[in-house]
Amino acid sequence: MSDAVRTAIRTCPLCEAGCGLELTLDDDQVTRIRGDRDDVFSHGYICPKGSTLRQLHEDPDRLRAPLVRRDGELVEVSWDEAFAEVERRFAAFTEQHGREALGVYVGNPNAHNLSALLYLKPLLKSLGTRNVFSASTVDQRPKELSASWMFGGGLSIPVPDVDRTHLLVILGANPYASNGSLATAPDWPGRIEAMRERGGRLVVVDPRRSRTAEEADLHLAIRPGTDAFLLAALVSTLAAEGRIAPGAAGEFAQGLDTVLELLAPFTPEAVASTVGIDAAEIRQLAVDLSDAPSAAVYGRMGTTTAEFGTIASWLVDVLNLVTGNLDRPGGAMFAKAAAGAANTRGASRTGRGLRVGRHGSRVRGLAETMGELPAACLAEEIDTPGEGQIRGMVTAAGNPVLSTPNGDRLDAAMAGLDLYVAVDIYVNETTRHADVILPPPSSLSKGHYDLALLQVALRNVANYSPPVLPLPPGEPDEWEILARLALIAQGMGAAADPSIVDDLVVNALVQSAVGDEHGPVAGRDADEILAELAPRTGPERLLDLLLRTGPYGDGFGSRTEDVAPGVAPLTLDRLLDHPHGIDLGPLQPRLPDVLRTPSGMIELDAEPILADLPRLHAALDRAVPDAVLVGRRDLRSNNSWMHNLEVLVKGRPRCTLHVHPDDAARWGLADGASARVTGRVGSVEVPVEVTDAVRSGVVSLPHGWGHDLPGVRLEVAGRHAGVNSNVLSDEVLVDVPSGNAVLNGIPVAVAPA
């Protein structure tokens, strides 16, 4: 072992859990990764993905230099050449088509990425198009909307206080395989097991006997896509039995009587045949929630990627409220993030409210939400001729060909674009169509802070990880890539200094901070604040500002008392002095200050949600398809982009079709043989795995596979290609209020291949 051996501490950036890692390096070569036992949040826990940062860093297919398409082939060029090519192509494109012919897709990894969270916004503004799409509308937009309408913020999402609850009810989530989602915490399995050891109970509602369901005290195998009916029946039962008890949160809730009246028809008997759960079991679950000393209801992907995703997301929080479990220890509580949270800035309680539908998609008229159009309409916006047709795309860390509905149609549409610029580390199923690919640095060469995810954490913590490795000579940081693209879009040229954008961003944030009469630097001189942030630049300067003006920050000297027991006010320097993180304590009740609604109340009766209830009622007792498709998660996988690491994909194939034995018999399928699965928009052939882990009438196929398309440069993934489940996803099926894609409960036909 050389004298250059050192240890580095950082937070894993690969999923929402935020686990602390301890890296051993020898002469800048990573030799070992293990869980950081001193991390204030994860305490040494690590999943199989976290140990692969070295393999991801060393992956020979990870791009180290830009690629430009010349004579039909993507060839490596210098950074200056690449930006010059973007400038040339962008100028020609906008002259011919205008900016409204441009589309943007932002992928899921950006939520884990400090540079992207801080610098994508100026890039989007510079591009000047309303055709913005993101992974949020194939994942979580219903929950963001229901939280906005109820509580006043898209990330004002109550999370289950798993560490203190007596009863945890999980719908459509599998945290044993994926950890939490919109509920950030390391080691969900350990937390659930600790709950059960202290006498708590776990109930899982899922059409599959998932890894989490296997650990449950009760597993209710619901029909896919019907969670909203079950939740409505639970609320209806509580009302009918006189068990509505909102507790302290009820003081700040409006419209409860209206909601209970509208939900009254959804009795257990009325919904039983629809959800596939006996009415007596529904009634008993309602009683258990009412009687538990504390309880938390938590719903995720299975509830949001469904036909009634927004109603289901809303009903999760309605149910937490009517059982007295909203905003109380052991129930569903609001995190208080150290940086970046809208619900810690400005006047508490009141806000402007959320407007949607400020514009719509060109072809189908699907409504804009939170500045974005539904990803389900991306393909048609590209391949349908007419005024406003998307003829060019910019993508950032996204692979929509594998991740969005009707992947075959989108793949064909992307091939016909006149301009496509991608910011990505791989030539994947989508970026293979690009004219220019600009690869960000390795995650080991970037600083990390979970600016978004800590806003939905199960405990208030703050961790910053400086870069473990230096940037290779001549390689720009990710924020510089995004800034230079913004400057090109603004017409300032490929050679413009990215610090121009950096200074504009920090100045805007400082002006906002000193202009916030409720904030810690209200009325201060902006130049004074900027001087105190020097000499930092880039994401670290912005993060320091957000921390210091946040609810635990030093307010640039205005706050000196401890912000939590034994915790001095935060600055970035303090986080750097505490590499294992700073524990800010368990979640605390935050009502009513957390609210940012027009009324200053929890708006249970939000009009856009109530307006969708007749659609739910109309779907009662409709015919059940012969077979419906659902997805599934795996601990060693994360959407579409981690299949090129041998350590994560080795072993038995995991891209298989789970089929119940009764269904296999009636469809003539054999374990290990191939089946043809056909939906309205496409079909796939996939190996069958006969298992009673799915209920009859349901088949399950994992998300994010299908790495066998020509031009993809993912050698390992290509050997474990699997099939793309989104070839079967129907872009016509969306949750109406949100436009979110329906990925669970898709009608399919299944037969031997």
Structure description:
Among the domains are: about 1-60, Phosphorylase Kinase, domain 1 (2-Layer Sandwich); about 70-100 and about 360-445, Rossmann fold, CATH 3.40.50.740; about 140-335 and about 590-615, Dimethylsulfoxide Reductase, domain 2 (3-Layer(aba) Sandwich), CATH 3.40.228; about 625-750, Barwin-like endoglucanases (Beta Barrel). It is about 30% helix and about 15% strand. The protein is built from 26 helices and 29 strands. A seven-stranded mixed beta sheet has the order 5-4-18-17-16-6-7, with helices on one face. The protein has a seven-stranded mixed beta sheet with strand order 28-23-27-24-26-25-29. β6, α3 and β7 (about 130-135) form a beta-alpha-beta unit.
